[in-house]
Fold this protein.
Amino acid sequence: MRIVQQRSVISLQIMSIIFSLMATSSLFSETKLQELSIIEQQIVDSVDLSFAAEVKFLEKIVNINSGTRNKKGVKAVADVFMNEFSQLGFNNQWLEMPADMDRAGHLLSEQTFGSDTHNNKGKKLLLMGHIDTVFPTDSPFQTFTRTDELDGHKVLGPGITDMKDGDTVILYALKALINGGYIKQGTISIFFTGDEESAGKPISISRGELIKVAKRSDLALNFESGSPDKAVVGRRGSSNWKLTVSGKRAHSSIIFSENVGAGAIFETSRILNEFYQTVRGEHGLTFNPGVISGGTFVSEAEDGATFESFGKTNVVAQKVIVKGGLRFLNEDQKERARIKMREIVNNNRPLTQAIIEFEDSYTAMTATVENYAAMAKLSDVGIALGMPELTAYDPTKRGAADISFVAPYVTSLDALGAWGGNGHTPNEWLDLRTLNLSTKRAAVYLYRLLNE
Ligand SMILES: [Zn+2]
């Protein structure tokens, strides 16, 4: 008993020494991480030195129209980047999409650093962007334009903040790091999609290569438009559903009878009402019936969004089609909702039938502990550069993006780009000072990640 007690006293003393050492060292490293080292300051200085060239480069690519459907324009922007990346020692691949998909393709550029041929040292980073915009060739909004606002730092242009800025941040952060010889190990894969604004279908093909690269990466960083104090660690996923209900066509005077039953429209009302009453409520889960068409006959046009129905007040409805969407925080939540919806759909009123079909669209980017940890490291770099601490955007308020496709396979972080506003409108603008800040932040962050 005494011996045991003595031992525990000793171990307590040792423990308290260890804890105080840990506290000192973590305090020390924290302070250190929120300041720049001498090398990091050199990296930041070289970003500043090439900043005028960086703005010129952004102007050049903004002035190339690359609306998603302008395949030549998207490829032309990719060519500009391929030229730059190959000068930095990257191997480029232009990934063509099948002709019937009607999308330009994607750019994949890769390089492994250091003498390590077995490729097992250093992190594997996936840096993501997209080179298409929402502005077609006939849009009046085509050029990079300077303004007097924000002391002349406000510039307008199509895709200037969504996301030719982010693509440029990646390039100039890498220029600073590689030209200065600061990367000694690790692998960098750059993946720029050419159809983010309207992803080619099927997704399994248009995002197949991206997912393959994600599976062999340790961390995926997407450079969509950012904010001084916010990053994206989670985004909701989305899927579609289609409900088809049929009933027995008969004279309305005998509805509810044993031989006729309730009809398709009453059955559809039951289903939708039960969705509302019993599936609704979980945090982060929403579902929306977007279109409904019912009667004796219903036809759906090829676009999947236009319907024609015919029915009479004295005929029991034979058919109803409802199409809707479903948004969720993670795959479990999606599955739970689908199970409940199927149960409701299967519990039919007399002489009616209903089927519900689900179609996957974007997977959810689940806000994992690892994603938060990646954000905390980026936050430290931002603080060292005089920026505020980063907190996460509410995932329920974030729509789907390309990062959503890779998030199930790799730690992911989004919103590393510069910031401005009015994306997807003819007033899209960027604050050039934030292009500078984001490039510095990205360069130091990548340096730290690759030297961990
Ligand atoms: Zn975008």
